[in-house]
Structures are given as structure tokens and as C-alpha cells.
């Protein structure tokens, strides 16, 4: 059962958005809903192991000034119930069911990393549901290096533990002066919410999602030419998790695709250049 809808104006901040829950086929899905009512809502799909508090507040707030924004959790992640799926296919079907349960006939999607895999699959499975698509730090099924995300990530996660730094400093940002400053600012933004924070991911869910990522990397390529809607693709020029060449590949294969590559940036290029990204994305969604 959906919790009572709290209407938030364009001045609402993500750090203060209430935690909501809706039952979808017997599973409770956690989400947050903010921004002005009316128009096509923007649904956010996040990265491996991410909970609601891993969405960048500057990006969410930037969108919510103009658009209704729905931030969601995958099944088995954070406060969402159930067991985390081990395929992108299952995550996409969950997201379609969630969107329909919320009563939306048409949405825009923004998928970051794993969320980009899911967003592509949603668009191919339910083309009637998606108006515009934003893919960031992501790649296609069978993309270069995607099955090695775990092999690339574990040493950097260990490095984070040994240096007492959040591993996202190494996973999402380059080890340049600009990258280090951007990483620090991003991680500070993720701490802005002081109350009613989401639950962290359990290790089992984290590992099950990694299985889904590996399977996506080994999957046969999809026919991205079937995506006939406008698509905005963004990444950094040196993505160590999902190699940047995958963003170029998606842009080449989707007829109405626009590509933005940020210099001196990595997997989290949209966080490093959040103001520019929000401006470009809002223009894209409003065109």
C-alpha cells in the first residue's frame, strides 16, 4: 500500500524528502518523490550497491526545481524488501512494475552505471512507457570490460579500506587534483541528509548485484537500434569501471543519441560536473 503522497514544491531538497514505500507484487519498494507535480516524471536508477542516500543531492535537487523526480531502490537493496535479483532482466521487470504501480503511463529515465543497464532494458521491454532516456557511466549488454567490473573494483575497494577513504573516491573519480577535489565534495554531499537515512546494502545483495553485472557483460548484444526515442549519454573520459568506449558505442548504435564526454573525469563524471550535467539534461528533457 502506498504511503500518503506528500506534495513538495520546487523548493524542496532531496535531503529532506520523506521515505515512501509501495507494495509491488507483494514486495515493498522504497522510494522518494519530490519536485513539482504535473508533466512526465523522471525516474532515477542508481549504481551497484546504491541505496536512496547514494543519489547526488545536487543532481536530484537540480532536476526537482523543474521536474517531478522519483528516486528508487532495487529489490533487496536498502529499505526495499525481497531478495536482490541476479539479472538485469529481473531488475528491469521490477522497475516496470513499480512505475505502473505508481500510476505513471509515461516516464523519463535516468540510469547511472548498473542503472543504465536497467534503463536500456526497460526501454526495450516497454517502449510505450519511456519518453526520453538518459544513460550515464554505463554500457550496453556485452560491452567492453563490463564483465570485469568486479575484478577492477575489488582492488580499489581494498585501497579505500587501507587508506581510510570511501572507495568511491577511487572508483568514480580520477586521481588528479580536480578529481580529488570533486570526490571530496561529492562524498560530503552524500552526508547532507542527517535524519531518516536509508539502510545500507547487505553484503549478500551487493554480491548478487555483481552477478547481474557480470551476466550483463557476457550477454549477447541487444538491438539498440530499436530505441527510437531521444537519448542523452554522458560519461567521463577515463571511466575505469565501465570503460568510456562503451558510451561511444551506445551513441553510435542508437539513432537519436547525443553524447557528452567530460574531460579529466571518470565513472562519476556527472557528479564531478553536476551543474553542467543538470543544465544539459534539463535542456534535453525540455526540448
TrEMBL record:
GO MF term list: hydrolase activity
Keyword Hydrolase: yes
Record's keyword annotation contains Zinc-finger: no
Pfam family, any one: Abhydrolase_1
Domain AB hydrolase-1 residue range list: 41-271
Descriptive protein name: Alpha/beta hydrolase
Species this protein is from: Aliidongia dinghuensis
Keywords: Hydrolase
Amino acid at each position: 500500500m502506498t504511503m500518503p503522497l506528500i506534495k513538495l514544491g520546487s523548493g524542496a531538497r532531496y535531503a529532506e524528502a520523506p521515505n515512501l514505500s509501495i507494495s509491488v507484487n507483494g514486495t515493498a519498494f522504497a522510494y522518494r518523490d519530490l519536485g513539482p507535480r504535473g508533466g512526465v516524471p523522471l525516474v532515477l536508477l542508481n549504481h551497484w550497491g546504491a541505496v536512496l542516500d547514494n543519489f547526488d543531492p545536487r543532481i536530484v535537487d537540480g532536476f526537482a526545481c523543474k521536474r517531478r523526480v522519483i528516486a528508487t531502490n532495487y529489490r533487496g537493496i536498502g529499505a526495499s524488501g525481497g531478495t536482490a535479483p541476479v539479472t538485469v532482466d529481473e531488475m528491469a521487470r521490477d522497475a516496470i512494475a513499480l512505475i505502473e504501480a505508481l500510476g505513471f503511463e509515461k516516464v523519463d529515465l535516468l540510469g547511472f552505471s548498473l542503472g543504465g543497464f536497467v534503463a536500456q532494458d526497460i526501454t526495450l521491454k516497454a517502449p510505450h512507457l519511456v519518453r526520453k532516456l538518459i544513460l550515464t557511466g554505463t554500457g550496453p549488454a556485452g560491452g567492453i570490460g563490463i564483465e570485469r567490473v568486479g575484478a577492477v573494483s575489488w582492488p580499489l575497494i581494498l585501497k579505500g579500506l587501507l587508506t581510510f577513504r570511501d572507495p568511491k573516491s577511487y572508483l568514480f573519480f580520477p586521481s588528479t587534483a580536480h578529481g580529488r577535489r570533486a570526490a571530496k565534495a561529492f562524498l560530503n554531499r552524500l552526508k547532507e541528509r542527517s535524519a531518516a537515512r536509508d539502510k545500507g546494502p547487505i553484503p549478500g545483495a551487493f554480491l548478487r548485484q555483481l552477478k547481474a553485472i557480470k551476466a550483463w557483460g557476457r550477454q549477447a548484444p541487444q538491438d539498440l537500434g530499436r530505441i527510437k526515442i531521444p537519448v542523452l549519454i554522458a560519461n567521463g573520459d577515463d571511466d575505469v569501471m565501465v570503460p568510456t568506449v562503451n558510451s561511444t558505442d551506445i551513441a553510435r548504435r542508437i539513432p537519436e543519441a547525443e553524447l557528452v564526454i567530460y574531460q579529466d573525469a571518470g565513472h562519476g563524471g556527472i557528479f564531478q560536473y553536476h551543474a553542467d550535467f543538470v543544465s544539459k539534461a534539463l535542456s534535453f528533457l525540455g526540448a
